[in-house]
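Q: I'm writing a short explainer about LPS export ABC transporter periplasmic protein LptC for a general audience and would like to include a description of its predicted shape. Could you first generate the structure from this sequence?
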Amino acid sequence: MYDGAFPKKAWKSERDSVTDAKFFSIDDKKRQYSFYAKKAQRETSSLFTFLFPKVELKDKNIRYFLDGERASYDKAKEVIKVSGNVSFKDSRKYKITTESASMDMKTKDIFGNALVKGNGPLGVFSAERFKILDHGNRILLNGRAKMVINVNEKR
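A: Of course. Here's the predicted structure. Afterward I'll give you a sentence or two in plain language.
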């Protein structure tokens, strides 16, 4: 990930915090993303925590949105963990809700081990665990998965 997302100059020391934090960056594949939070705190040189985070990612012509009540970002692992009323949406009208989810910033895959519910143009689903892969083109549901497909939906 491009280090500009968390500029060193913004953090003067360990345990620094910023209110109404806004970070903008471009990853190594030239995908734009932005990160907003009511409060951002640097816990260590590579661990940051956030209150009411919102992540927006633009990949090709699709926009992805991930938000929740709390988050942590491990810069070394390039993983964002979001918890508390987590919502994932994209510009194709898919929406997923869960209590916790993680996003791998290298692959942009999103995954979680908490109950998930979702809906979109093709129908509704629920499961105990999930993975969103290939920029949202594949959703894997595991553990007591249920899906209702709208067969009359126009594509």
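A: For your explainer, you could say: The first strand starts at residue 17 and ends at 26.
Q: Perfect, that's easy to follow.
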